[in-house]
Amino acid sequence: MSESSPVAESGKKSADRGAFSGRSAFIFAAIGSAVGLGNIWRFPAVAYENGGGAFILPYLVALLTAGIPLLFLDYAIGHRWRGSAPLAWRRFRRWAEFIGWWQVLICVIIAIYYALIIAWALNYMVFSVDTRWGDDPEAFFGTFTQALGGADLTVSFDYVGPVLATVALVWVATLVVMTLGVQNGVARTSMIFIPLLVVMFVILVIRAMMLPGAFTGLDAFFRPNWGALLNPAVWVAAYGQIFFSLSVAFGIMLTYASYLKKKTDLTGSGLVVGFSNSAFEILAGIGVFSALGFMAQAQGVEVGEVVSSGIGLAFIAFPAIIGEAPGGALIGVLFFGSLVLAGFTSLISIVEVVVAAFQDKFGLARVQATLGVGVPLALISTILFPTTMGLGLLDTLDNWANQYGIVAAALVSTIAVTYVARGLPTLRDHLSAKGSFPVGRWWYVCVGLIAPLVLGVSLTLTTIGLLTAETTYSEYPAWFILVFGWLMAMGLLGGGIVLSLLPWPRRSNLDQLDSDGDEVAPEALPGRGLDAEPSAQVTPGTPHALRS
Hints:
By secondary structure, this protein is mainly alpha-helical. It has helices at residues 6-9, 23-34, 37-41, 43-49, 56-81, 85-92, 97-127, 137-145, 161-179, 182-209, 214-222, 232-245, 252-257, 266-299, 310-324, 328-362, 366-384, 390-420, 424-434, 441-468, 478-501. Helices cover 68% and strands 0% of the residues. It is found in: Membrane.
């Protein structure tokens, strides 16, 4: 860029934010974020409980009418306004900045407890070698975590030595990757770990399908219950699985898209990420139910009696399978190794949202931002979770951060974009300009009608269920639920609003050129596409002209 150019004469400097080397790096990073623990331990049980093979239909409908459309929405905002969640939302509309900070705070909460699950998986990968849990995996898990449960749960700082060490190890590895930057750290880790994860899981699936009773489990998993399709709860479950699985609406995909080159095919990339994530979920279902079929046959019970999800599946049911199955040690190492890889790439993406936000806010270099954000997160996580209250705290934070964080933020953002800012035409034109899959009226319907409707129903049903239940959530003390559930969730929204009101320092990236030295796109015009922008704002080389 010459010194006589208008950009140089403006006195602005380029934001040093980092970037992906190309579309492939972005796709691997996005898949690394989307493919997480929920793919392995949540989807199989949700599918089984909601119609088996018939669940695939509402699941695909949810993917096409909400998951991928919201993925496109995140991509468009991040890519067009070239910033972290708070910066991109502010550039979209000044008042919308609070949505970005809300998403950042959601990621803070998820990051500090997510490391604990990865640490457990790391320990269990080692335990698998000699099936250290013996004949009673449930009792072993209780002894290993020393977790307080039910009414006994309270704030406790009694530490569990082995868990403390592995949580610290997870955070050290995370900080090392984050300091390496967007391409050399975030992208390269996913480009190594995701193929390795797929190879490990395919081997696991093949081995599980060779177990006696495996096809009984697969029959239970895939046998369609078509009557379930008439149950609205099944459709809500399908949309819920898609929202939680695809990493939409809490800043990750928005942040990743901001690191892309300007002429990237956003919609084509979104389809690859969306269908890759779903393919892995179905693969996980095959592997998990093959193993559960073996367990059911070994115990002489129906498959439905051994189905579980979440922590129960991973750390109680699967160890029981590993203990009884021929070649169980291999199954254990592959299963828990897969959890570690899937969880680690997801944790990196979650922390990246927070790092990018503070990097933009204070104009920090990569290493400064990573250490300034990562070290406090690591300390909080390491202080709170390798304790006897760790499991209960994780359970509570996870439930409220997901329902009243991710779901609520997705609901607010879709309403804000569609009806308040009326910014869908601008985002539509941005997506279609270089996308191999142009979006139009159907995308409007998905983002502006279907997604808010389903999100609102999900939030309403969850709230009614929590408030009308005969006991508190997981029978934890009411004060614990109030503090770490309801007040935490309200604090995320309140904190986002407060942070959005704080002024941006002069050294921030707010008024700087983007990483390529170009002016950032102007705010979206209400109800009007890119062809309605004033010609003076559309200059060659700017992102809204997309360097055509």
